[in-house]
Amino acid sequence: MIKRFIDKVLGKRRRSKPAGAREPVRYAKRDHGIDRRDISHAALRTCEELHRAGFRAFVVGGAVRDLLLARHPKDFDVATDATPEQVRGVFRRSRIIGRRFRLVHVMFGQETIEVSTFRAAHNASSDEDSANTDEHGRLLRDNVYGSQADDAIRRDFTMNALFYDPEAEEVWDYVDGVNDIRKKRVVMIGDPEARYREDPVRMLRAARLAGKLGFSIDPATEKPIAELRGLLSNVPEARLFDEMLKLLLSGHALECISRLRSLGLHTILLPALDEVLRAPESAKFSTLALQRTDERIQADKGVSPAFLFAALFWFPMCARARELEAKGARPLAALHEAMDQTLERQRKTLAIPRRLDGNVKELWLAQSRFEQRSKAKAMRLLTHPRFRACYDFYVLRAEAGDASVEIAEWWTALQSVDDDAREAMYLSDDGPKKKRRRKRGGKTSGGAHTDAASDARDDGVDSDSSTNGQLPT
To answer: Which of 55, 178, 335, 432 has the least C-beta neighbours within 10 A?
Structure first.
């Protein structure tokens, strides 16, 4: 569809327009081929209601780009000449959010449409209290409203500056974005160095868009990145995490990370990633994890960020645990300390929410339990709330050569047979039972024991098990 559109329109009547042109090229439905039925009903309703109230409104940005590429957009944004307060007055179920960028979220059932007001480029200010940028040029506030042309020019890449008018069914292009889509290239609007200084996260977006869409990065757009990538250290960690999560869950994580590495951005975001991808054994495991994540996303299946982070940091965590053991730490203590240190190290640059820590640690701790195949221990693991994720993690390790294929197959078979067959599969208890040492002074309240083995079982690891048998060598 996009090829037919480009050949027909650009070949006959398209003229090159420099970035910053003030009059848009308007493409009719017969030229762009976008079907209204592919657009979210909530986005159409938002535009219709704003039109009815006397305002202009367009579907904008990545959704228009994806529709032109015959992709199905996941999100639809709307841009309008109405101010946030005016938009709020049109929609009862809406709210104004943000300080740096004031937006309106309009709710339709379970779907939320993000509505932004046309903005102009910020003006430099000599007043330190009202300055729009910091000392590095990073944009701090962007609430200067302007025209639709202003709004197109202040967006990041030409492919993201396209507007679709649902009423006239036209695509409006101010910055030659359609031509750049045809050439499969990521092009920054305006001076790339200045735009990266305004928002360093744009460097990550360039890598993500190139990897996700299979586009090249325009040489002028790519050139400043090597010099300016250090500016990412000035970006709030939460923003970096959000952008990194978009990259990892784009459905093309392998390609995106490859672009990050080629641009030298991975050492800032994922300090442990380079060492992981250099070592053959860890590279295979991490690559498989990214491939499986991409496959699930492309098949519209759910994915867990915790699973992916657990996979990416598994080898660095294991290496740290072995170092601590070599220094004399007990295996279980070394494992817990290594988990904490690995996650904390990554959190210094990428604000992985602490709410994910528990899930990541559960996946790591459960790995040793797959070695234990007696009835009691196997049944206990099968009833683990996150057994399936822990099992998938172990199978992935086995596929990468980091765990026993025979044990992985045993657990796969155990889940598919009836109770009688299971009874025949269970192994005898793992070694002779050890007599528990009672705490001095007799039993505690209720007869419970507080020995180390009991504490370890609560954590999902036997106190007498060494990490040497569970961690990669």
So the answer is: 432
Residue among 460, 376, 386 at smallest CA distance from 423: 376
**33 φψ region: left (φ > 0), alpha (ψ -120 to 50), beta (else):** left
Closest CA to 231 of 265, 270, 182, 280: 265
What range defines the domain where residue 94 resides?
A: 1-124+138-183
Cβ-based neighbour number of residue 101 at 10 Å: 13
The residue among 175, 187, 130 whose CA lies nearest residue 150 is 175
Strand partners, 112: 107
Residue 120 placed within a domain:
yes
Give the Å distances, CA to CA, from 429 to 294, 312, 432.
39, 33, 7
Residues 282 and 276 sit within 8 Å (Cβ to Cβ)? yes
CB 309 within 8 A of CB 360: yes
Say how far apart CA 427 and CA 375 lie, in whole Å: 7
Q: Report which residue type is found at 17.
A: K
pLDDT tens by residue, 69-94? 999 998 999 999 999 999 999 999 99
E strands, 318-465, in order: none
Quick: pLDDT tens for 238-254: 888 898 899 999 999 98
pLDDT at 271 over 80: no
What is the tally of structural domains in the chain? 2
Catalytic residues: 75, 77, 156
Same domain, residue pair 324 and 179: no
CATH of the domain at 9: 3.30.460.10
Six token digits for residue 141: 């506030």
Q: What is the dihedral of CA 275, 281, 284, 290, to 10 degrees?
A: -50
Q: What is the DSSP letter of 100?
A: S
**Bridge-partner residues for 216, per DSSP?**
185
Name residue, tokens 């990412």: 232
DSSP states along 61-86: THHHHHHHTT---S--EEEESS-HHH
Q: What is the rounded distance in angstroms from the CA atom of residue 136 to the CA atom of residue 233?
A: 11
CA–CA separation, 339 and 341 (whole Å): 6
Q: How far apart, in whole angstroms, are the C-alpha atoms of residue 270 and residue 358? A: 20
316 lies in some domain: yes
